[in-house]
Amino acid sequence: MRMYPGLSVVTLGVIDVSQSSQFYERLGWRRSKGASNPSVSFFGLNNIVLALFGRDDLARDSGLVSAPSPGLPDGFSGITLAQNYGSPGAIDLAFDSAIAAGGKALVEPRRADWGGYHGVFADPDGHVWELAYNPFFELSADGTLSLPA
User: How many of the other CB atoms lie within 10 Å of CB of 145?
Assistant: First the structure.
């Protein structure tokens, strides 16, 4: 399976998840109560999800070190792009495709601390991509992600 041309989630690495979440809520954005918890907030935006996650935790999940300067290999930019898939097997196939296309493996596909399955790679310019299977989110046949209310 090749990676499909889409984006499910943009994750911003933030200093304080609660404070950053309050900012976006003040903008009128709705935080998903069913998907969010103290360590991560999810906001449904039209056909994409914005996630706010602790910067150091996001860097660690991506196999990187959080640093003030962006880029690889010396630091972490504070943002990852994510595609969600319907199964761990689909993650393995898409990850292999990304590496074969010239991506750099950062985290080999594996069970994630949060209960799903994911792999992380960087494109040739160092932009970090996560391929994730999240059993807590509904994913339609066309790849559209639905958050719990």
Answer: 23
Note the pLDDT tens digit of each residue in 56-84: 898 888 888 776 644 445 567 778 888 89
How big is the chain by its Cα radius of gyration, in Å? 15
Q: Where are the domains of the chain?
A: 9-119
> For residue 11, what are the CA distances in angstroms to 41, 58, 79?
10, 8, 6
Nearest to 88 by CA among 142, 133, 42, 29: 133
CATH level 3 topology of 9-119: 2,3-Dihydroxybiphenyl 1,2-Dioxygenase; domain 1 (3.10.180)
Distance CA 53, CA 17 (A): 6
Element housing 13 (H / E): strand 9-14
Q: What is the pTM of this model?
A: 0.68
* Cβ atoms within 10 Å, residue 146: 13
Write down the residue that tokens 């976006």 correspond to. 24
Cis peptide before 73 (omega within 30 of 0): yes
